[in-house]
Amino acid sequence: MSLSAVTSTHKLxxxxxxxxxxxxxxxxRVARFQTRSxxxxxxxxxxxxxxSMIDLTTLEGQDTPGKVRQLCQKALHLHDAMxxxxxxxxxxxxxxxxxxxxxxxxxxxINIASVATAFPSGQAPLSVKLDDTRMAVAEGANEIDMVISxxxxxxxxxxxxxxxxxxxxxxxxxxxxxxxxxxGELGTLDRVRQASELAMHAGxxxxxxxxxxxxxxxxxxxxxxxxxAIRDYYAATGRMVGMKPAxxxxxxxxxxxxxxxxxxxxxxxxxxxxxxxxGASSLANDVLMQIRKQATGVYQSADYxxxx
Amino acid sequence: xxxxxxxxxxxxxxxxxxxxxxGGQFPRxxxxxxxxxxxxxxxxxxxxxxxSRKDFRNAMVAARGAQDGxxxxxxxxxxxxxxxxxxxxxxxxEQFSAExxxxxxxxxxxxxxxxxxxxxxVYFAGWADKYQQVxxxxxxxxxxxxxxSVLEPTGVVAILAPEASGLLGLISNIAPxxxxxxxxxxxxxxxxxxxxxxxxxxxxxxxxxxxxxNILTGYRSELSGQFASHMDVNxxxxxDGDQQTDKAVQVAAADNIKRVLRRTDVxxxxxxxxxPYLVRDTQEVKTTWHPIGK
Amino acid sequence: xxxxxxxxxxxxxxxxxPAPESTDHVSIRKKYELFIGGEFVAPVQGKxxxxxxxxxxxxxxxxxxxxxxDVDKAVKAARKAYAGWSRLKPAERGKYIFRIARMLQERxxxxxxxxxxxxxxxxxxxxxxxxxxxxxxxFYYAGWADKLEYAxxGRKVKPLGVAGQIIPWNFPLLMAAWKIAPALACGxxxxxxxxxxxxxxxxxxxxxxxxxxxxxxxxNIVTGAGETGAAIVNHPxxxxxxxxxxxxxxxxxxxxxxxxxxxxxxxxxxxxxxxIFADAAIDQAVEGIVNGIFFNQGxxxxxxxxxxxxxxxxxxxxxxxxxxxxxxxxxDPLDKNTDIGAINSKQQLETIRSYLAIGQEEGAEMFQSSCxxxxxxxxxxxxxxxxxxxxxxxxxEEIFGPVLAIQTFRTFDEAVTKANNTPYxxxxxxxxxxxxxxxxxxxxxxxxxVWANTFNKFDPTSPFGGYKESGVGREGGMHGLDAYLxxxx
Lengths: 308, 294, 489
Fold this sequence. Notes:
- The complex is a heterotrimer.
- Chain A is of the alpha/beta class.
- Chain A has a single domain, classed as Alpha-Beta Barrel (TIM Barrel).
- Chain A has helices at residues 3-6, 23-34, 40-52, 65-76, 98-105, 126-139, 150-154, 158-172, 189-201, 220-237, 252-266, 283-296, and strands at 54-57, 90-93, 111-116, 143-147, 176-180, 206-208, 242-244, 278-280.
- Chain A has an eight-stranded parallel beta sheet with strand order 7-6-5-4-3-2-1-8.
- In chain A, α3 (40-52) packs across α11 (252-266).
- Chain A starts with a helix and ends in a 12-residue tail after the last helix.
- Chain B has ten helices and ten strands.
- In chain B, the strands form three sheets. A five-stranded parallel beta sheet of chain B has the order 7-6-5-8-9, with helices on both faces. Chain B has a three-stranded antiparallel beta sheet with strand order 3-4-10.
- Chain C folds into two domains: 31-268 and 467-488, 3-Layer(aba) Sandwich (Aldehyde Dehydrogenase, Chain A, domain 1), CATH 3.40.605.10; 273-452, Aldehyde Dehydrogenase, Chain A, domain 2 (3-Layer(aba) Sandwich).
- Chain C has 14 helices and 20 strands.
- Chain C has helices at residues 68-87, 90-106, 108-119, 123-142, 172-185, 200-211, 226-234, 247-256, 282-294, 311-325, 346-361, 393-396, 412-420, 435-444, and strands at 31-32, 34-36, 39-41, 48-53, 58-64, 156-159, 162-166, 189-193, 219-221, 240-244, 263-267, 273-276, 306-310, 365-368, 383-386, 403-409, 427-431, 449-452, 471-472, 485-488.
- In chain C, the strands form five sheets. A seven-stranded mixed beta sheet of chain C has the order 14-15-16-13-12-17-18, sandwiched between helices. Chain C has a six-stranded mixed beta sheet with strand order 9-8-7-10-11-19, sandwiched between helices. Chain C has a three-stranded mixed beta sheet with strand order 1-5-4, with helices on one face.
- In chain C, a hairpin with a 2-residue loop joins β2 (34-36) and β3 (39-41).
- Chains in contact: A-B, A-C, B-C.
- At the A-B interface, α2 of A face loops of B.
- β10 (283-291) of chain B pairs parallel with β18 (449-452) of chain C.
């Protein structure tokens, strides 16, 4: 008996009935978001909002407790020279580093997100993935970023992918579940849309584009399709699902285009860190430089902003 | 066939009744009016239907009804049907030649006109599945779209046929119209109508679908205004217009923005008068766009 | 699919600050004379009229009112120039047109700003669509000048002579390019009349053409209203008329030309159906609806002004459309974030408003987005009518504004019947994911341009023009050359 059969609230959608997506139309819509000119007060507001939505991330084989502590320090002190800045939404680390992050962040209000489920490939038995998840939650992660089994998805084993998400969600307990579709491996926007629906119906609190290990990572095109899937899911069920583009968003200008896209697709209710995140490591400093430039009118140098 | 009087016939010939051709049938004009066609000596050749506006209206209904199906017939089939018309005409060369002679043509000229007509039908039959290739285009637009332009028939075409070329002139105007998927209503030469009616019989025998070609006889002065003003006519071809009728036809045609094609001073016997631009004249260019994506 | 219960909110929250395009790079003279024989000359009767900014109702400039006498001067100048221009080596002719294209690219920012100031269209469109496409048209036809014999197999080609060209106010510069570029490439000279509400980019183009060193008289531009246009149409020295505008005026022109032997092309009105099947990529289809009817304030002859949506998805499509409409920004045409600019003129605004009243009187349900609009100027919020049928006037008649009439259908054949049930036949849209259905539908729609899974796309290589009462002839592409040539055996 499949897990989905016993979990009555979750039902695998019929993939053949998922709306199709026209790539050229998506490109055109994205180009139009990019023609929005965000200036002056609206730009400052956007930059601060972006900062508050960042999941400051380090997901390297070479990660050490030292590196993670430095990242947490950065999360706590983005740029003390400018008071009144929001803090980032979360730091995102491997499960083994959750404990380190937990200690470093204390009660700062910054969440700890941890990738789990044999990140980034997802090629491990379910039991290993469940253990991975439970361990991260037990160590103090309040958000779990899981990867779907792309191989199974592409092979058409939707039920298996679905059941896995249901099981991981169950293992998350109170932690929020972000489901990484790894859109760069799905091939077409149609598949992105299908995977989004599958993940949301399986109980994802967030859907997320990428691990950052595969190119292309987040694109506006992919993100738009996922936002539209979230919108339609909300229209049908009334349940809000969050969105996290991750990987490749390094500059403020691009991040602002994402905000424009978010605003014009899902409206104001999603314009908070509760419902939208940027998975990024270098974005924060670029945003800080832009905020500084807006305040002073002077173009900034990266040498004046801490790199951790 | 009618016989001119003045000759002593060995037997009394059975005179032919010349009717009009609407929707694949041969009615008399609903008006029951006629005009008498006479030979040079003044002898009666035949009574010719003097078609009315209602005949034209009926012919238009038939032409409109046939248009969609004819346009959807494959180019190959349209070509074959036109070729079949040529075949049938070939078998009736003598009849047509005799009619031309009755209308005053010299013997050799009559034979030549019939031959040229058959050859012209073959010429246009051959264009059926080629003009599209010559006049279509794939357009290299700058965006990520596949874009192509093809020809589609304009629709129903009204034809005021050449007065001085009762057979070849008529067929030279009808053939390029129908080979391109249009249907038509043609008004035959007023002074040389015999072959037009006989040609209708050939069309009938050749299995041209009813309504594709409709042929009326009658007074051009009565009918040209109707042809030009009818709101369901998409294009009008008129031959030999003088400036006054030009103007009248074009003014009336503007009521529904008809395509107006004036063919004056064309020597229909000349081979240079046959070309695929005659087909293109009653075609619309349709351009289709579609995104190229995955 | 039922209409979704859970709706999104687009009001309040993070808003876009004004982002106006600067106009310090723009030069508009206080007064423009007529461009005849390579020079700016005062109109014979010394009369001028105002051209105003429809977003502020303020005067931008005064332009000469060309009388029949001025038109006669322009035609004579064009005739005089024709001898040299038509005999110029075709490759050299082409190079002049290439030069116009390049200079237009170089001055694009100024042209875009003036187009928005004079006509009310958003700078995003004049900058990204009108001006670059105009330059592209010159570039495309420039290359044809010495290759014309390849376009018409089996024929010899000859220029016609003097072309009289009358263009509308919805795409002032682009329509000038559509008209002038092929005419010049084919060896004709022209007398062009821009619309009376939007003459400025045409006058800037006159300056550019003079700067480009195009021989005097090859392009002449006379400004004025209907009477000036009539003087061009009726002038015996004109060999060809190219007109873009309403079907009513097109009809008058076709009648006026009767018996004159002048060649003509007419690009007239439309009431295009945009057909959405249940299996379409719905989100892109909604975007196509928006582009189809709200592009350029709906002042587009090929606008997708009738939406035919399959009943099973009608609720969802309309809901998505309404939400999308709430994100459209109506206002200052010079603001880079403006989606829908000013209605071109007071008169046009009154026409649109009369249709809004007619639609409601006929019992249709009207929805308008809730965005704020400026106090001064001519504005119309994006508007949809639901609950309409073929017999409604808002379904039958061209409104030429941001007003969409929405009907539903059940079957393919019903959609075809409704789409074609109009005297017009300019354009159409089809949205479905099924390949064979696309071809069936694009073949069935009686229109000169059919956009499948897209809408309102234009390109210099792509022929444009209508069936039935939407016009005669094609502009653009290889097929567009035909309008400016005599074909001989």
